[in-house]
Design a protein that fits this description.
Elements: E1 2-8, H1 10-14, H2 18-27, E2 31-39, H3 42-48, H4 58-65, E3 69-77, H5 80-88, H6 101-105, E4 114-116, H7 120-130
Antiparallel strand pairs: 1-3, 1-4, 2-3
Length: 137
């Protein structure tokens, strides 16, 4: 079994899509190990996306991620990172495969409904950033 980190982003939460996304996550065979609704502060978003600090989209990204509540998740499944990325689809919903979360629920490359870790090292950092101690038994 492998664990990965996922976010249902503020755009999806504000559109009341979190329940549908969670249902699809469970239907795809993931176990939700931990889950929390949180409105990120600008500082929390900046810390989380620090790897992108030098990129031109950093300010807009952190503004968006701190614009409303999001659902933070620890998901578990065999090959969870690869499976979650496949379920999410391409970053740009216009290029995502039919039936993926981003194709079905994303509006644009900036408002694409979900986030997911892209590698084991990233998952470890991201899970540790938001979930601590007993939350991840």
């Amino acid at each position: 079994m492998e664990r990965t980190f996922a976010i249902i982003k503020p755009d999806a939460v504000s559109k009341k899509l979190a329940g549908q996304i969670l249902a699809r996550i469970e239907a795809a065979g993931f176990t939700v190990v931990a889950m929390r609704l949180q409105h990120l502060t600008k500082a929390e978003a900046e810390g989380f996306y620090a790897v992108h600090q030098a990129r031109p989209f950093f300010g807009a990204l952190t503004d968006f991620m701190s614009s409303g509540p999001c659902v933070l998740l620890c998901l578990e499944a065999p090959d969870a990172i690869k499976q979650w990325r496949a379920l999410m689809g391409a970053t740009d919903p216009a290029k995502a495969e039919p039936g993926t979360l981003r194709k079905d629920f994303g509006a644009s490359i900036d408002n694409n409904a979900t986030h997911g870790s892209d590698a084991p090292e990233t998952a470890a950092f991201e899970l540790g950033y938001f979930f601590r101690g007993l939350e991840l038994r």
